[in-house]
Every structure is written in C-alpha cells, then in structure tokens.
Fold each of these.
Amino acid sequence: MQHKHEISNNFNLATDNCSIKNDTYQYYPVVIIGAGISGIAAACRLKQELGLDQFKVFEKEAGIGGTWLTHQYPGVACDIPASLYSFSFAQNPNWTTLKPSGREILNYLASVCRQFDIEKNIQLRTEIRTLEWIEESQEWEITTLQQHPVSSQSAKKQVIWARAVVSAAGKLNQPRLSTIGIPGIEHFKGDVIHTSQWNKNIDLSGKNVVVLGSGCSAAQVIPELVSPRHNVKSVTQLMRSSPWVFPNLLSPAALGLWETYMPWMLRHIPGLTRIVRTVILLVVELQYYRIKRSAFSPNSRLKDKLLQYMRRSVPETYYEILTPGYEVGCKRIVHDAGWFQSLQHPKVTLSISSVKRVDDHTIVINSTSNGPGSDPVEVCVPADAIILATGYNTSTLFHGIRIIGKYGKNLHHLWEERGGPHAYMGIAVDHFPNFFMLFGPNSSSGHSSAIVNIENSMNYCLKFIRGIVTGEISSWEVKIASCKQWTSKIQDASAKSIWVSGGCTNWYVDQAGWNSMIYP
C-alpha cells in the first residue's frame, strides 16, 4: 500500500476550487463507465468506503453484468472457482457448484446490486461517446447517447459533467471475427455466430456445426453441442494450435461432495467463506508458480503430467495434434470442463486446419491431421453453421469512445505514439486528470481471478477519489515520468516473459510485441 507522500511523488495534484455547472447540465461527482464486474465493484466501494450516493453508472447494454450478460453460449461458465471469482466484500455462500454457470454468476451480480442499493444509480442502454477534460473548471464533459428501449431509431443525447471518471469498460467486448476475408464467406447459406454474440433462437438440431478455435469458450461450447439438448448431426472443431489443458481441480466424486455439503457449511460456519477463498487463492497462485517454474525446463514434470492427462482422456488418434508445440503458460490455459471427454463422441471431429474457402454448405480446409509438422491435405467439411470461438480484439481499448485530456491530447493517439495502451499501475495516464481505469492495461494476471485485480485497483483509486469528492483536491494527474517509467518496466519484463518467448502467438501481446494485457 502506498502512503500519501509516495502517491504524491507519482501524481500531480491541484487544489483550486472548481465551479459546478448550472442547472441545464447534469452533474455527478463521479461517473462510472460500464455496469459489468468492474463497474459494480466501483459503485459498491464508493458507497461502502466513501458513503457516496451521488454517482452515475452508464451501461451501453440493456442489463448489468458485462461479459456475463453478453456471453450466453451453451456451456458458458466460470473457469475460476466462484469463491475467488466473487467480491471479497460480498461473499456468496450459496454457489451450487465450484465453477458455476454464467447464468448463476449473472444472478450473483444482480444480487450484489440489490444488496448495495446501486440499481438506481445505473442508467442502461447508454453509450459514452466523448470524454473531454475542461481545465478551467477541472471537470470532465461527457457526451452520452441513450437508446430508446423500444425503437432503435430513437436516441437521446445528453451532456454530463463529472469531477472524476472511473472507466470499467472492460476488454472482452470486441469479438475477433476470423471469417472476415475468407474467400466465399459471403456465399455461405448457414448461420455464422461468435460465442460472445450468441443467438438464443438458433436451432442447431440435425445440423453440421463447425467450431473455429481451441480456447476456453470452444472447450465449453463443444460438450454442450453434442449433448441431447442440441441434437446436432456433427461437430467439427478446427484449431490452429492445441492448448495446454489442466484437469479439474476436484475429481467428480470430490465435486459431488462439495456440491452436497459445502453450501450448508458456508452458510452455517462463521468465517468459512473467507477461509475457503484464501485457500483457493493459494492453490491458484501455486499453480501459476508451477507454470512459471516449468517454462523452458527440458524435464518439466508439469508438462509430463498434462500430457499424461491428455492421453488418458482422448482417443489415440488425437495424441499428436493435442501435444502443444509451445511452453505451458504461453497462452491462457484451458481448464477441462468436459472437452476432452467430448472428443470421444462419435459426432465430434478435431483437426489442426486453416480455412481455405467457404461454399454454400461446405468449408474447405487445409488439414494437418497427423500433427503440426505433417503436409497439409485439402478436405471438404460439411457445414450448416459456423461458431466462432476465436477470442477478442484486445489491442485497442475504449472502442468508439473519443477521450480528450489536457492540452487537447487524444488518449488513443497518445497510446499510438508511445507504442500501445499503457497506464501507471494499470489505472492512470498522464494528461488525463481524474480519469481512472479498472481492469486497465497490464492489470490482468492471465491465470487468476480478475475480480481480485479489480478490487485492488479500485481500492487504490479510492485514495484519490476521496479528496476529489470532498473538495480538498480538484484534480490528480500521474506524472509523465512516472507513467513512462512504469510502462518501460512493464514492457521490459514482458519481453523476457513466457508470453513473448514461449513459442506461441496469443492475445496478450500484439504483432509488434507490445503487451497491454498482462502484468508480468
């Protein structure tokens, strides 16, 4: 924790009194962008820590939840134990399982909003279009566009003024549409859908389904597709490379005991929720330590164990293509929630392939069915639906929002000039006073609960916001030197990390080698 003098060493502060706009403008001491996990955390902590009720949360979707609202694909679930993937200040003793479904997490977030009475502070269907810092008044001028709940043609423009802005806009909101540019895709007669834009009305019964991708969402959706609920004709999974797959934390028998007894114990044994949360945190961190220690080790026991698990779980024909050609941890690991078992299903086919072209009801691929080093063979795959489990565009933050700071500095232009998105402590950028980011650049761990990082960031932000809302301080701004030094430290450490030198491509690091996602 930084003390006050340490904070002031890295931030410039102004203490002039600022004026409040007249009644023709809406004014809030604090505005929060987004009502996902980060936005809900920010709102709750403002009320809990500062006793502040005069703030507004603007959310572009029609409901709260962020990623968990927009991701409705079959099988969507948390891949981190829920005791850790929940707020420390709002623990839930009623989780039905160790890693609950997306719907259960969404219900939890809604219950937290009710518990802290922040629903009235949230304005839905409202996009932030521009943010502009007004130096004279030491305030942010915010332009919003609120969609009509019924008519998509009608939208209301508003101008809001705020002393401080907390961005909780998130990173996983721009899907990577890998079919763009594939020859013939415009002639495809079936459905094409990204897992983050799932259509609940889609009927896959009796259809040949092709899934592109091998990450976490692919590993969750495929077991569901071959279940009796969907009754598909076939599932063909096309992947560019295989992931490292970790077995479940608990065996099926142990998971059954957990689901039977743990909810009762958490409700009736004082302090047990915090104990369980701490133990799980230690287990997850130990797992990450093992990953880092195994990197580049020629005799890694971790790699051997993961490969043994794979060979116990999948048909022998897939041994070669499911042996990753890069280090453990270079990409985000996949926690097996039934994917390996689903590969034994007669309806499922797995291939390392690149898509060559698309016809009306066919995908033509170059398949290396015998492993990454084998010669490609052209294969026609029947397809009535294409599911894109292809991840997100994470190289650009604040899509569609124009952010102008001091001296007319544009945030996107500033980042472009310096190499990529960055922020001091993942929170603040010079030239942008009173602008704080949650889950900002380099604030992800890549292996653990994002909520832990989000809470830590918000607790740090509260040190600055407190003085702003009480009027003691009109603005905080991180010093240029501090921001650049922090960024240089992050990028230097990243260049030596497993994500850059582990032999893979990932969504943590862009093509130029800039890491704007992970804290190294």
Amino acid sequence: MTRIEAFDVRSDEVTHFEACQRDLSVSIGLHEESLTLDNLGECRGADAVSVLGIYPVDHVLSEALAERGVKFLSTRSIGYDNIDIAAANAAGIRVSHILYSPKSVAEYTLMMLLMTIRRMKLILGRGGIQDYSLEGSDGRQLSEMTVGIIGVGRIGSTIARLLQAAETKHSRIETVLGRS
C-alpha cells in the first residue's frame, strides 16, 4: 500500500485526506506540524511527503527524505519557491504542486488590494455596529497609485493585466530570472 506523510495539515484538509485514504486505498499520516529535520522519523518508509508552501525544503531536507526512502514530494500550494527543485531531483525525489486558476488568484489579490485601499476593514467593522459615519474611511483611487508586482509568472502577469485595465501604474519585478 502506498504511504504518504502530510505535514502542516489544516483542520479543513482532514476530511479530504480521509476521503483520499478511503477512495484510493493509500495510507496517509496527518501531522499538524511542519516538516523539519526533527520530525523526519515520521517519513521513514513513506513513498511520498506532502507539505504546504510555507517552509523551505532545501538540499539538506531533500537528502534526508531520500535517505528515508521518499521518492515524491508534493506541495499543497500553487508556488513552489520554497522547494529547492534541483536538490530534490538530485536526491531522486520528484516534485509536484497543485494548479489553481491564475485568474482566480489574481482576482482575489485585486479584491484584497481594493479592500485595503478603500479601508473596508474599518467600514465593515463599523457597519457591524450600525455606525455609518465617514470619518477616517476615505480611501485611495487605484488609478492614481503605483503598484509593484514581485514575480511576473502566470499569476503576476494576470495581476498586471487587471491593474492595466484599472489604469494603474505598475512595476514588474522578476526576482528569480533577474529581469524587470
């Protein structure tokens, strides 16, 4: 039976992991803590490890996983900048990540940006207590701002197109490839 060890497991993920375990006949160990050198013992004999895209998986961790028999590393996030792919591959570990719609993530980012510059936390908080005063709730206009985008992959370039439609000045900064 295939064995997977999942780290950084959130409470909202547990039922999905349990369904996978049942429907796919795999064994999945669920761990709330992050994968570290201290808890690698949990991975001994596992075929695969699943992590969130929060904590780094460097060459030291990749080699330690390979020594314990792990052949596959999956991140439950869109990005995988936290994983040293070359080191994982050199250790014989294949790496994957999940796919999201770049438009969905870009639109969510734009929504959060608009909510921030329009002071929605303050406005919604006041609305919750039926205070509809305007003092301190003046927002800014997106079209009069300059926005920096760090990383212009599929998501970053989609954000840039949305900002362009809003007539916003924006700077694209690509840190990985060293181009701007």
